[in-house]
Amino acid sequence: MNLFKIAVFRPVATLMVFVALIVFGVYSTINLPVDLFPEIDPPVITVITTYPGAGALEVEQNITTELEDQFSTLNDLDEITSTSVANVSIVTLEFDWGQT
């Protein structure tokens, strides 16, 4: 309750505290070193295979499924995603972070 009395009976002091907080916040924000795009090397490999003249189903059966089966035996593999479209198979391998 004492804090409320001070805020009401001394509005200039309350205003100065808020101004000081705003000035400190602006100063800190301006001088804060922030790297919005840090240098990282994500552990991801994308394998793109072409199969001219084949439809999406044929690419999936003959290329994508075979690649997924072979890649699934790799160590430290986190996730495999694949896309098959006409003439092209795209297989993305995502490894665990920190692995070389």
TrEMBL record:
The keyword Transmembrane applies. SUPFAM superfamilies: Multidrug efflux transporter AcrB pore domain, PN1, PN2, PC1 and PC2 subdomains. The chain crosses the membrane at residues 12-30. Pfam families: ACR_tran. Keywords: Membrane, Transmembrane, Transmembrane helix. One of its GO terms (cellular component) is plasma membrane. One of its GO terms (molecular function) is xenobiotic transmembrane transporter activity. InterPro entries: Acrflvin-R. This is AcrB/AcrD/AcrF family protein. It comes from Pontibacter ummariensis.
